[in-house]
Amino acid sequence: MKRLLIDLSARRLTYYDEHGIANSYPIAIGKPSTPTPVGQYQVINKIIHPGGGLGSRWMELNIPTDGGPYGIHGTNNPSSIGLAVSNGCIRMYNHDIEAIFSHIPLYTPVEIVASQWPSNPYNPTVNPNLLYPGQQLVIPE
């Protein structure tokens, strides 16, 4: 089953396909004053070239809010990746979100956790059983 796991502590988004972990990407997350909310959500809307600072792709999540929507999106500020700087959204490099965008259908489950990485059982460097046979996941520094 396709799903996304967002680990706020590790600042990583992991994409799972039918075989297990397909890839993992560095992300930016919400700053302390506007944190990314943990929980179980779904992708409810997708837009190519959304405009503004949202980079080349936007995937809206069904996170309840009184303000604007939360989403996973690209960025026109790639130096922000790896930092806690957003208003709660999850930022990715444009080339990374473009790589998974077409593979993520509407209503794909998205789990956002705040683990104590690297003890996170979803982290393939700790639990290699999550990889499918022959796969090696290289996490850039």
Please give the radius of gyration in angstroms: 14 Å
Helices and strands, in order, run as EEEEEEEEEHE
Q: How many E strands?
A: 10
Low-confidence stretches: 117-133
- Architecture per CATH nomenclature, i.e. the level-2 architecture: Beta Barrel
Could you walk me through the main structural features you see in this protein, from its secondary elements to its overall organization?
The termini are far apart. The protein is mainly beta and 141 residues long. It has an eight-stranded mixed sheet with strand order 3-2-1-10-5-6-7-9, covered by helices on one side. The protein has a two-stranded parallel sheet with strand order 4-8. Residues 117-133 have low confidence and may be disordered. The chain has one domain (3-123): Beta Barrel (L,D-transpeptidase catalytic domain-like). The longest helix has 8 residues, at 94-101. It is built from one helix and ten strands, in the order βββββββββαβ. The chain is globular.
Task: Record the SSE blueprint.
Layout: E1 3-7, E2 12-17, E3 20-26, E4 29-30, E5 39-48, E6 57-61, E7 70-73, E8 84-86, E9 90-91, H1 94-101, E10 109-113
Parallel strand pairs: 1-10, 4-8, 7-9
Antiparallel strand pairs: 1-2, 2-3, 5-6, 5-10, 6-7
State the main characteristics.
141 residues, mainly beta, L,D-transpeptidase catalytic domain-like, two-stranded parallel sheet, 1 helix, 10 strands
